[in-house]
Design brief:
With about 425 residues, the chain is mainly alpha-helical. About 70% of the residues lie in helices and about 5% in strands. It folds into two domains: about 40 residues, no CATH class; about 250 residues, Rhodopsin 7-helix transmembrane proteins (Rhopdopsin 7-helix transmembrane proteins), CATH 1.20.1070.10. The chain is built from 13 helices and six strands. The chain has a two-stranded antiparallel ribbon. A two-stranded antiparallel ribbon has the order 3-4.
Length: about 425
């Protein structure tokens, strides 16, 4: 091999290198660091340090946020499950079986799905192989869909409990039916997740595009793309149909709650006619009751739609626009859906007084201050009257007594 003779006028480089034209040869690197830019100029060290500092700050912020979401999801859902297992009164309420199963699904999301998604999001690389990529994707679809279907079952259970007579509710929500509904919340997601994904049905017609996206620079990523039939079918079963059922159920619950509040207000106003300010007090009480019911239902539906609607809208639209949705938007929509698993314990348990009491007992090691009092309490005198064949509780009863008489004699009051 002959060396280069630079004094020549032509100064042609050996092996294509021209010392007078660094812009043709690309940047010069020594020991892995760029010493010359494409124009041959030394880069500003302060600019490099600033970029590195900003990148490190963003990385730390992302890791902290994802860790907080996973930690709160694990602790919240574990607390719900332990509370129902330890509290005998909570185990008597059928709705709480749906809440426990929901907490179990959300716990699995935070343990089996979120960590791998966080690792890939931070490192921008998938190191666990193609087979586990399919397994992880199937678990993602299964567990998030199971969580959504549990929310739908909870809304249906509350609809039958509040909007129907007690006999209808007992006939509808038998232990066998509760078991079948919970089983359906797990079987249906399994059918639309593991079966089509492991068989590759979701990738029919787009396999070439998936193979191209698996390689991102020098990294390998876990790609999950769906064709149009799978996107429509999965989205309808996992989100849009449950969403319609939840909206109809909660709309009816709100109307019924307003009617209950109106009837109770009329009875209490008639019983307290001797008081000058009784009418104003009852109107304020009714307004507070309706406002609380409206806020609760708005919070439940608002959080559900806010968390999952962006992902499922994107999931349906993406195949029809040639899969042009940016990956950053995909990641944001997906983690917004994961956050719903962190919020569910707060919405369906922490807002419930019985659950809050059970949580305090667990966290305070069974302190007697938080023990459940006698349901009627000492010296309690309750009166009830009949209107249109239904029993209504009047003044002089504690809240627990009103709830007990209402549940035993007529439609359950929303709490």
């Amino acid at each position: 091999m002959q060396g280069c003779e630079f004094p020549q006028e032509d100064l042609k480089s050996c092996h294509g290198f021209d010392p007078r034209a660094p812009h043709r040869n690309g940047p010069l690197r020594i020991d892995g660091y760029m010493n010359l830019s494409s124009t041959g100029q030394m880069p500003e060290m302060e600019e490099v340090d600033t970029n590195e500092s900003n990148g490190l700050a963003k990385r730390v912020a992302l890791i902290s946020f994802l860790s907080l979401v996973m930690l709160m999801s694990v602790l919240g859902n574990l607390l719900v499950m332990v509370a129902v297992c330890k509290d005998r009164q909570l185990r008597k309420i059928k709705t709480n079986y749906f809440i426990v199963s929901l907490a179990f699904a959300d716990l699995l999301v935070s343990v089996l799905v979120m960590p791998f998604g966080a690792i890939e999001l931070i490192h921008q690389n998938w190191i666990y192989g193609e087979t586990f990529c399919l397994v992880r994707t199937s678990l993602d679809v299964l567990l998030t869909t199971a969580s959504i279907l549990h929310l739908c079952c909870i809304s249906l259970d509350r609809y039958y409990a509040i909007c129907c007579q007690p006999l209808v509710y007992r006939n509808k929500m038998t232990p066998l039916r509760v078991t079948l509904m919970i089983g359906g919340c797990w079987i249906i997601p399994t059918v639309i997740s593991f079966l089509p994904i492991m068989q590759g049905w979701n990738s029919i017609g787009i396999k070439d595009l998936i193979d191209k996206r698996k390689i991102s620079g020098n990294s390998t990523v876990c790609v999950f793309m769906v064709n149009k039939p799978y996107a429509l079918t999965c989205s309808v079963v996992a989100f849009y149909l449950p969403l319609v059922l939840m909206v109809l159920a909660y709309q009816r619950i709100y109307v019924t709650a307003r009617e209950h509040a109106r009837q109770i207000s009329m009875l209490q106003r008639a019983g307290g006619a001797g008081n000058a300010d009784s009418a104003d007090h009852q109107r304020n009480h009714r307004m507070r009751t309706e406002t609380k019911a409206a806020k609760t239902l708005c919070i439940i539906m608002g959080c559900f739609c806010l968390c999952w609607a962006p992902f499922f809208i994107t999931n349906v639209v993406d195949p029809f626009i040639d899969y042009s949705v940016p990956e950053q938007l995909w990641a944001a929509c997906l983690w917004l859906g994961y956050i719903n698993s962190m919020l569910n314990p707060i919405l369906y348990a922490f807002l419930n007084k019985s659950f809050r009491r059970a949580f305090l007992i667990i966290l305070c090691c069974g302190h007697k201050r938080y023990r459940r009092p006698s349901i009627l309490g000492p010296g309690t005198t309750c009166t009830a009257t009949q209107i249109n064949g239904s029993t209504h509780v009047l003044n002089g009863c504690s809240s627990a007594s009103k709830l007990l008489l209402w549940f035993c004699n007529t439609r359950p009051v929303p709490v």
